[in-house]
Amino acid sequence: MIAKREIWTYPEQAKVWAGKYRNSHNLLHWHYDCEFIYAEHGSLDVFCEKKKHTLCEGEALFLDSGQIHYQRAREPDTVLIVIVFDSAVVRPILDKWQLASPKLYNRYPIPQHYARILRILSEQQPFYGEEAACAVAEMMIDVFRGEQCVHRLGSDRAEEAFKRLLEDVQERYAEYTFDEAVRFMGMSDAYFSRYFKAMAGTTFSQYLSFVRTDNAVRMLLSGSGMTMTEISEACGFPTIRSFNRVFRELTGHSPSRLPKDYVLSEKYTLSSEEAFDPTLYDCELIESCDTAAT
């Protein structure tokens, strides 16, 4: 998913989801649900609130409703516990308070909370949705009592505009320009460049190239019958030469030799100084409330 709003699908009658991922990674996105991440094994980087937070084994992070974020495991064997829930589950808390930092400073019995929530969702006893919500509320009360909290601030207008910009780029990527993005945000060129890099972890030009390449990959794999030149033009590349160059830089393949099962990774979130290891992007859901035995 490319910098878009994510909509979670919950088990029937519940507003809570729980599961474990190995080697988790995802692209820049947001959702209006809350997400709790715990590093059970290994470590990962989570980008949110314009900062990179590194979680080591036993550490946790809470993503509030609407926060733009992405994450990347630092080792392939990293295992994460993830608990996602509708913000309404803890609305009385979130209406007034927010954590001073997404990353938690103290340790909590998250594996025990997770096991309880997973059992409730898997067994699906009568009123299990309400029971799961109570289990999440109990966990979050424990966290909010143990962490530094601040009074909830009003919505960040610039961040809301940034979300709309990303959606606009995704819709009209072929014709979008830096100048149009600057006007959309109502910022100066220099301020917009700094703001976009702080929010997305990459420059606007790099991000736009990724969006265009991602769509080119989809067109190539769809069997549309379009020529390379037609795909290049449809995706907004100025010349076929620039299309071939950018495509190879981001995928490692020429457009004419793209594997049929290819999936574009999140390389655009890495700085040019960092090496790209494709084996780090084999994310696997290893357990969830949808698959756990009842």
Give me the CATH superfamily of the largest domain.
Regulatory protein AraC
What shape does the CA trace take? globular
By CATH reckoning, the class of the largest domain would read: Mainly Beta
User: What is the number of helices?
Assistant: 9
| Secondary-structure element order, N to C | EEEEEEEEEHEHHEHHHHHHE
Q: How many strands appear in the DSSP assignment?
A: 12
Strand ordering within the main sheet = 7-4-9-2-12
Helix content: 25-40%
Written overview of the protein:
With 294 residues, the protein is α+β, with helices and mostly antiparallel strands. It has two domains: 156 residues, Jelly Rolls; 114 residues, Homeodomain-like (Arc Repressor Mutant, subunit A). It is 37% helix and 20% strand. Strands 7-4-9-2-12 form a five-stranded antiparallel beta sheet. The protein has a three-stranded antiparallel beta sheet with strand order 6-5-8. A hairpin with a 2-residue loop joins β5 and β6. α2 runs antiparallel to α3 and α7 packs across α9. The radius of gyration is 21 Å and the shape is globular. The two termini are 31 Å apart. About 5% of the residues have low confidence.
Write the layout of secondary structure elements.
Layout: E1 4-5, E2 16-22, E3 29-30, E4 33-41, E5 44-48, E6 51-55, E7 60-63, E8 69-73, E9 79-86, H1 91-94, E10 97-99, H2 110-123, H3 128-146, E11 149-151, H4 157-171, H5 178-185, H6 189-200, H7 204-221, H8 228-234, H9 240-251, E12 284-288
Parallel strand pairs: 1-3
Antiparallel strand pairs: 2-9, 2-12, 4-7, 4-9, 5-6, 5-8, 10-11
Helix pairs in contact: 2-3, 7-9
